[in-house]
């Protein structure tokens, strides 16, 4: 670049381009998707708040309260719930950086039990898992998750299990992750 007075300044372009955080997080994608579903009156599905009890708050001014100490009151169940076509829907959303498998340590026993109970009572229950490095997102029905847990001694679900037993959710513009298209197949297009 030539500056006034004949001074030359070289500009270097960073040759290393980071592809981390290319997309949005799974939670952000699901929140945008669910907002779209509500906007077009298709479904009412919300992110559940984490149950916490606040024990210490600092009030530097009336409008600037800062939570200093809090704890979880009970273990949370799953991330999302709501209603679609008269059916209760409940699911957990997880991300993994692994290219080969999803660790079962990422989902708690009480969450699996919760989804199992939702399914047993006629609700729609599943897990949405994003393999971030592969940029692939899958919907795995709770029955398929339970089959894997009951039949396998592994501590992780291989990507091949997802490819063979789960539904790939393709990225779109609107909605971002149209998982209800898959739910329609699961419930028979009610």
Describe the structure.
Helix content is 27%, strand content 29%. With 190 residues, it is of the alpha+beta class. It has a single domain, classed as Trna Endonuclease, Chain: A, domain 1 (3-Layer(aba) Sandwich). The strands form three sheets. A six-stranded mixed β-sheet has the order 1-4-5-7-8-10, with helices on both faces. β4 and β5 form a beta hairpin. The radius of gyration is 22 Å and the shape is globular.
Q: Which features characterize this protein?
A:
190 residues; alpha+beta; Trna Endonuclease, Chain: A, domain 1; six-stranded mixed sheet; two-stranded antiparallel ribbon; 29% strand
Structural class: alpha+beta
- How large is the share of residues in beta strands? 25-35%
- Pick out the low-confidence regions: 9-23
- Based on the structure given, which CATH architecture is correct? 3-Layer(aba) Sandwich
Report the strand count. Answer: 10
Calculate the mean pLDDT score and round it: 85
Alpha-carbon distance between the two ends: 64 Å
Helix content percent band: 25-40%
């Amino acid at each position: 670049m030539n500056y006034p007075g004949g001074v030359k300044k070289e500009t270097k372009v960073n040759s290393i381009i980071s592809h981390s955080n290319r997309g949005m997080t799974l939670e952000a994608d699901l929140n945008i998707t669910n907002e779209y579903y509500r906007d077009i009156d298709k479904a009412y599905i919300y992110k559940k708040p984490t149950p916490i009890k606040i024990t210490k708050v600092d009030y530097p001014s009336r409008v600037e309260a800062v939570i200093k100490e809090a704890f979880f009151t009970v273990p949370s169940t799953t991330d999302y719930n709501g209603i679609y076509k008269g059916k209760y829907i409940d699911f957990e959303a997880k991300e993994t950086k692994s290219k080969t498998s999803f660790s079962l340590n990422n989902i708690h026993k009480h969450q699996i039990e919760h989804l199992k109970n939702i399914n047993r009572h006629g609700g729609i229950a599943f897990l949405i898992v994003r393999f971030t490095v592969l940029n692939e997102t899958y919907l795995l029905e709770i029955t398929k998750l339970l089959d894997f847990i009951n039949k396998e001694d592994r501590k992780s679900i291989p990507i091949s299990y997802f490819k063979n037993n789960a539904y790939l959710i393709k990225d779109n513009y609107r909605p971002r992750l149209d998982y209800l298209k898959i739910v329609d197949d699961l419930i028979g297009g009610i």
